[in-house]
Amino acid sequence: MSRAPAAAHSPSQHTSTDRQMAPTITLEGVGKSYSGTSVLRGVSLSIVPGEIHALLGENGAGKSTLLKILGGVISADEGTVRFGGREVRVGSPREAIDLGVSLIAQELALVPQRTVLENIFLGRWDNVAGFSRDGADRSAAAWIIDELGFDLCLDDLVSTLSLGQAQQLEIVKALARGSKVLCLDEPTAALGEQDTQNLLKVLRRLASQGTTVIIVSHFLDEALGLADRMTVLRDGEHITTDTTQGYTPRDVVALMVGREVGSLSASPDPVPTDAAVVLDVEHLSNTRITSITLQVRAGEIVGLAGLMGSGRSETLMAIAGADRSSAGRISVSGTPLKRSSLRAAMRAGVALIPESRKEQGLVLGRGVGDNVALPSLRRRQVFGWIQRGRERETVSTAITSVDIRGRVEHVSVGELSGGNQQKVLFAKWLVEAPRVLLIDEPTRGVDIAAKANIHHLIIELARRGTAVIVASSDLEEVLSLSHRLLVLRQGAVAAEFGRGAPANDVMTAAFL
Amino acid sequence: MHTPTAPQSAAPAPADGPDRPRPAVESHRAARRPRLPFDLKDFGVLGGLLAIIVFLSVSTSTFLTQQNLVNVLDQTVVIGLLAVGATICIISGVFDLSASANLAISAIAGVYFTQHFGVALGFVLALITGAALGAITGSIIVFTRVHSFIGSLATSIIFRGIAVVLTGGAIVAPLASQSEAFRVWTSPVVGGITAGTVLFVVAIVVFGLLLARTTYGRRVYAVGGNIEAARLGGVRTGLMHISAFAISGLCAAAAGMVLASRAGSAQPAMATGYELTAIAAVVIGGTSIMGGTGAVWRTAVGVVLLTIIANGFNLLGWNTTYQQVVTGGLILVAVAADSLIFQRLKRK
Question: Based on the structure, what is the number of domains in chain B?
Fold first, then answer.
């Protein structure tokens, strides 16, 4: 049992002395909300020592939130969390470490410029009066690495490691802290086949030695193969906790979706049968996408679905010329576009509403008016001089058309609510009615009212003849908005569905 | 105790655009309130400047004399011109540390051009030299993607070296017959105000309008505020940065010619370190070092503020050592206010 590496290590550095067994973790009625929006409700489950437990669900189902609660990064608003019978309210990573819990997030928390050894004991190096004395650290780390059969050299710089090795390093780091509960968020998402298999093997081995492993994964095959038990979440609700035996990925998808889609949202008007093809993309490829071919007719809304990292945003960025593409052809209304040229695409009437309004979409410190006017500045100028009267008119028309209330022209965008910021982003690209509108995550982080508004806006634009592509991680959204749906997987189109396709089938195409 | 009271009141207001002063706080209330053409909070720097002016007018008999005011304005010119260029660079999100080296090279080139082509053409050619050198610095930074701070530091060292090579380390002066005409920028125009001061005012107006009223200006703000959003909005971001450096070079050359005109000569080590004073003036005026917000008028206020503080120490007979303490304090107050505002925006 006492495989704890700390035994080989200076004991004074470790706060937790009780490290024989992982604690049994019991959750009762756990819930969490962010600014009034509930993202997790009534989760009750219990995870026994040495168990591998998978948290499964769609994007936004609340599985990462639950993992973070277990990993001690955030604390629950409701309910109780018990570790080995003792109620805990974990408020900081520090306390979680003391409890023997480590969370390994998707974004690894390593210092790339320093060595593997330094990273393993980050901040807790063995020392004498502040002078480092890495002998003990070294032997403890080497012992864990050996034990797990990892391919890590203590003196390598972290920046030279592969992603798989960095992932291994995170696990070593957790074990060196004496962690008996490992929480991993999508650990294999960025790994190749070999690294994935190695990682899964190590996780099984750790579990067999008494470490509890809690894992979030999009890959259902992999999760079902690895985990002893699973918890399925849907829209923040706890659907079931059960052993994984006897479940196929299909069964799990049914649990994850489990609802009829499209009842609440507005649906688009049918595309006229004689509508011409406006956007024609053939075999578009770059480092992130492979041979994307698609056509969008005037008035048609095409949805792009797929898991995180499946190439949704990358496809839109490449079509808009914002990312380089290495091969392929794009034409708008029959006229070929210069490849990888954002400005050529803009001139041809292609507008891109990017995924992140803060990072890519808006200049937060500037006024709403300035932001809305930016892409079409040259329409309202005489020798570079801005015609301010015309600009005011244009901006106020655009703002009205996206239903932003109040006199906001001069308010800086950073002061607006998320919903209104998103509407400003739309207004910016509607000043000159685009022929092709590419929308990435149309309603991320906006409230329900603004969401409905934006959906109506998209449908209205299509009705007026714009060719629209909507990419979203919200499956319900793309299902209800689009005439046709393309499912992407690893940068390529994996499946195509017509309107009214069952959500289960779409999910299956994305996950399997 | 030589502790001037002015700095506290000189804390800059939220940085904002020139033509639409807006409160950065409580916008919802502001939207409903009867709208003033400007918001008082936005003019904190100006308030600070006025307070110092009032204080000096009352406490000294010499401050409000024509001679003193003419002098103060003339003293703002060189730093002021550099600061106008720096304003455009900083708003667009880059720093030009090569400005004063560019100033030296352009002034030296200006003197040589003057020897060959006369005073007027010499001045114009100096400006062209400055703009071209700025564009080169900008291109290097844009194409190598080196951080502008380091890139322009490197070119500034190169420029100083070239200046020494050009002159052989000596002082260069226009021909004896030209020396009178060469002093044109020191000559009084109206009410004793020098031609150099007029040049500075012209630069403030021209570049102020360029930023506030043209599509170019809008793009400068957009690039500095969010370069990715600007790129996705069709702005040629590299071109914006190159042109910002070119404008900085142009302003530096103008400053160089004024300085050379005063001294009657130019030399490789002239104006060393002035670029930092210029950046300080920009920041004190309330332009954000994060880019994306600020205005030329703010820089003008910042420069005048710095100059008047120096003038005040002289007139009051205070130990000028404390002047540095005050200037440093002002910069800290300005930057702290700016970064607090920036953080608040980010959090939203």
Answer: 1
CA atoms within 13 A on the CB side of A94: 4
Q: What does the buried/exposed string (b/e) look like for A150-173 if buried means 16 or more CB atoms within 10 Å of the residue's CB? A: bebebeeebeebeebbbbbbbbbb
| ipTM of predicted complex | 0.77
pLDDT tens digits along A159-175: 888 888 888 898 898 88
Residue of A nearest to B211 (CA): A385
- Chain B within 8 Å of A414 (Cβ-Cβ)? yes
Q: How many CA atoms lie within 13 A of A446 on its CB side?
A: 26
For residue B101, what are the domain limits? Answer: 42-52+62-339
Q: Nearest-CA residue of chain A relative to B27?
A: A411
Neighbours of A193 (CB within 10 A): 8
A363 shares contact with chain B (CB less than 8 Å): yes
Tokens of B301: 């206020």
Q: Is the pTM of this model over 0.90?
A: no
Let me know: does B160 contact B104? Beta carbons within 8 Å: yes
Domains observed in chain A: 5-15+24-257 (3.40.50.300), 261-349+434-512 (3.40.50.300), 364-433 (no CATH)
**Residue A377 contacts B where some CB pair is shorter than 8 Å:** yes
Q: Which amino acid, A183?
A: C
Nearest to B292 among A320, A366, A373 (CB): A366
Give the pLDDT score at A150: 86
Q: With 50 as the cut, is the pLDDT of residue B152 above it? A: yes
Contacts of B207 in chain A (CB under 8 A): none
